[in-house]
Amino acid sequence: MRFTAVILSLLMTTPLLDDAVEDVRQTELAFAKAFADRDKAKFFSFVLDDATFLSAGRTLEGKQKVVAGWSPFFDGPQAPFAWAPDRVTVSADGQLGLSSGPVFDPDGNHAGSFMSTWRKQSDGTWKIAFDGSGPGPAVIDKVEEGEITTPDGVKLHYRKAGRGPAIIVPLDFMLFEPMKQFADLGTVIAYDMRNRGRSTRSSDTSTWTIDQDVRDLETVRAHFKLEKFTPVGFSYLGKMVMLYAAAHPDRVRRIVQLGPAGNQNVERPAGQDPGIPAADLALWQKLNKEGAMEKTPREFCVAQWTALRYMFVGDPAHAPRFRIDETCDLENEWPVNVNPVFEKLFSAPPHILTEAELKTISVPVLTIHGSNDRTSVYQNGRNWAAQLPDARLVTVPGAAHLMWLDDPVTTYAAMRAFLRGEWPLGSEKIAR
Fold first, then answer.
1. Does residue 249 fall inside a structural domain?
2. Spacing of C-alpha 290 from chain mean position
3. How far apart (Å, rounded) are the C-alpha atoms in residues 110 and 366?
4. What are phi and psi of 276, to 5 degrees?
5. Of the residues 86, 111, 133, the one at which a domain ends
6. Residue 369 — pLDDT band, cuts 50, 70, 90?
7. Does residue 384 lie in a domain region?
8. CA-CA distance, 63 to 41, in Å (whole number)?
9. Is the pLDDT of residue 270 over 70?
10. Residues 298, 236, 264, 215: is their CA dihedral positive or negative?
11. Please, which residues have CB within 8 angstroms of residue 419's CB and are 6 or more apart in sequence?
């Protein structure tokens, strides 16, 4: 009887602690939101009278000193930093909670981490007792850069940073800078596909396919002599890495998809106005009519992305975060060169993974998708998470295709937890 009572007690306690963990997570998120919203009164309402906040240069003991020390952070219209919990735990008695996670600057760069201790109040709410800094951002001693030659002679440009389990990211020119923050969790290897970024172009148009991208990913893996790695696939490459995993199930450790194209794409509904400024749209259309794509290709590239960047964010205010020069400084990314590649790539009959192929992808898969994605609709991400054996979805509310520009905190905190070997807090298992 005593043994049975202990088992019943454990069964009842676990859900209660799970609820407490979620309560602490939601409280931390509300605390961070009050800071982002510049709501000073709400922010300080989470702080206990006897709270202590620690930083590298000072210790603030008591709420009065915390208010004095943190009030200057509310002076500007934009918060100087943002954060989100990627780890939360609660004491066995349910009275203390510990939350920690990454901190980001206004441009979405990983700036460090935080660690907070929460105390449960008599009314069931949680208030912060201790707050301090955790480890800083990844320290990158050097970035290795080079080329990988494919069997048909194309040279794939790559950059590599960090140590530990390998993380391979196609689309180096766009993704190396944001992804190198994970160099403290593993070796980040980013490369440009053929015809893209700083890689060389192939004159054989029969290789401008997603299946060739799969073969080139295997070439990259073999070059670094990796037994296993975690691929990170953005947009149509979110589908490409799944094709790779089905062909090479023994080579992948885990998989990350960012705004992936669907296995069977869901038709895009009529989208809302993305908020492209009229002058930017008019200039792009004017240059297009004048044949500037061929005559002045870099100028046209800049004009195109100055307008189109609004299509890829949910909030027009985030469009300036798109780094136009990093794209238009590369001849491969000029529309005159990249458009034919896209036309060939996306006009091919779709390679749809069968039910049997999907079942071979048994490793954990994390799909992160913006709810307002105009390029690959949100349902595509939900479908991947529902169809795969071990997958979960993180929704980025209001975000579009470049969800990390809209909400770097949610996107990167989820990736950080997953690359560490855990399911992100708030990730959702989708029922078929």
1. no
2. 38
3. 20
4. -65, 125
5. 133
6. very high
7. no
8. 13
9. no
10. positive
11. 167, 182, 185, 186, 230, 254, 256
Residues 6+ apart with CB under 8 A from 353: 242, 243, 246, 263
Amino acid type, 150: T
Sort strands 391-396 and 365-370 into parallel, antiparallel or unpaired.
parallel
Domain containing 314 equals: 278-345
192/148 Cα distance (integer angstroms): 10
Q: Tens digits of per-residue pLDDT, 22-46?
A: 999 999 999 999 999 999 999 999 9
Global confidence as pTM: 0.91
Indicate the number of domains in the chain. Answer: 2
Neighbours of 238 (CB within 10 A): 27
CA distance 43 to 30: 8
For tokens 């990158």, name the residue.
140
Distance CA(235)–CA(213), nearest Å, equals 13
Q: Is residue 147, in this structure, part of any structural domain at all?
A: no
296, part of any domain: yes
